[in-house]
Amino acid sequence: MLNKKEADDATRESIKKEMAKPRMAKSARTAELNLEAERVSGQASTTVPGTVDKIIASLGPNQPEKAQIAVAGADDRHRGLRIENTLIDGNGDEVRLKKGAHIELTITAKPKK
After folding, report:
1. At residue 73, what are phi and psi to the nearest 5 degrees?
2. For every one of its 113 residues, what pLDDT tens digit does the chain have, with 9 covering 90 and above?
3. Helix or strand or coil: residue 62?
């Protein structure tokens, strides 16, 4: 157990450490906390690599062809993913995936309300 002098010295030392820290206005601390909340409350997402396994032809005239994608790192029973093979690139042009193409899938979760 510390005697009175040692306790006083320890208190003074902790106050010196606190005073040595840069000062920050209350509004800046509040803004910093709001930034943290915005980052956390945004949509959670992850990006995983994948490869187009095969292209499945359309079954009828009204149905588009599908691309089967193997997701890297997924369990064997959840590895295959099928999506419509009608995609739009950054210029607004329609594009299609080809067998063997390496892709990146971005999965985004909706925030809880």
Report:
1. 85, -5
2. 567 777 788 778 877 877 777 776 666 666 666 655 445 556 788 888 999 999 999 888 888 899 999 988 788 777 788 999 888 887 888 889 999 999 988 888 877 76
3. coil
- H or E element in which residue 57 lies: none
Would you say the pTM of this structure is higher than 0.70?
no
- Fill in the amino acid letter for 56: I
DSSP 63-106: S--EEEEEETTS-GGG-EEEEES-EE-TTS-EE---TT-EEEEE
CA distance 81 to 71: 7
CA 93/CA 91 separation, integer angstroms: 6
